[in-house]
UniProtKB/TrEMBL annotation:
The chain crosses the membrane at residues 6-25, 37-59, 79-105, 117-136, 164-187, 199-221. It comes from the Eukaryota. Keywords: Membrane, Transmembrane, Transmembrane helix. Coiled coil: none annotated. It is found in: Membrane. Residues 294-310 have a biased composition (Polar residues). This is Rhodopsin domain-containing protein.
Amino acid sequence: MGGNGLGHVVAWYICTAAAVPFVALRMYSRWTRIGKLAIEDFLIILALCCFSGELAIQQHMWNLGLGDMPKVKPENFKGIIQMVVPASILYVSALWAVKFALVFFYKRLAAPGSRLVLLYNITLGGLVAMYLFIFFDSIFQCFPHDKQWSMDPKYKCGHIAFEINYWTTVLFNIFSDVVIIALPIIMVSRLQIKLKQKLAVAGVFALGFFVIIASIIRAIYSLRNKTMLTCTVSMAETAIAIIAACLPALRSMIIGGSTNGASSYGQHYELSSTRRKTQEPNRLGNSGGIISVASGSRTTKSHHNPNGSEDSLVKAGLSVGLDGRENIRVDTTIETMYDADTKSRAGSSRTNLDSEP
């Protein structure tokens, strides 16, 4: 086993080692706060397993001489080529597991029955279709499989099959990444929170842009037959994707916020198309009108998501009811405008509504 490409091999292990603690922290945070894992957590574990399998295959290929292909023996060449399809499937499976995990996470944050839920379901369906196409195309792009390592020019697969697999993988991967990145940014822009907090939350998801950049770089190296560089960028791309998917579950560790028990961890704004507008009272001149504000509050009981998802983007304000339980306090505002010439009396009213679901 020569030393050619040793730096790339070290980079593979660094990428894998970087992703492991984030996955471990995500699982620890989820388990200690809600006592169980959701479907997106299992998908992240699946992604890490595929990622580790990809590392093992690439290590095996390097042991056979991947770092210096012109000097590879015929029997080793066959062994390397035999590993190309399994490595490709594990690479795609790891990335798609992360994509599925993120969309399931977004769907849990959406208000039930909203148009966002329909959008996420459509996205999930599209991801399934793209993954199945890439999966079966990778397996049957060259069949029988021994044509891939055959030394007989008349018994080889044509380049068209490989080009179709290459371009569909690249385009589907980049397109799905763009869609998945755009979804949370659109949702965060609708939240009634401070700009600083919006930027912090959007920044977590914006790490996905690095995944897109890595995908483009990988596609370029693969097109130029830079095998070692392609493998290294693939590992970096997958590692960044896994880390980015773990960050929302570690929100309190990244952008701050209370972490006092599961009840505080579970509070979150549901993301829907409904907006709430709040405005302080403004008094105009004598010739103008007066804007009066009738404000109220609604208190709902704190509860856990029955599906087991307690991830959150931002933390809602809490109040404590007479029964000692933490409640979510939602302030509403009604604006009334009238002309100064009218004889209507200006004033504000406050209505307190206490409701228990």
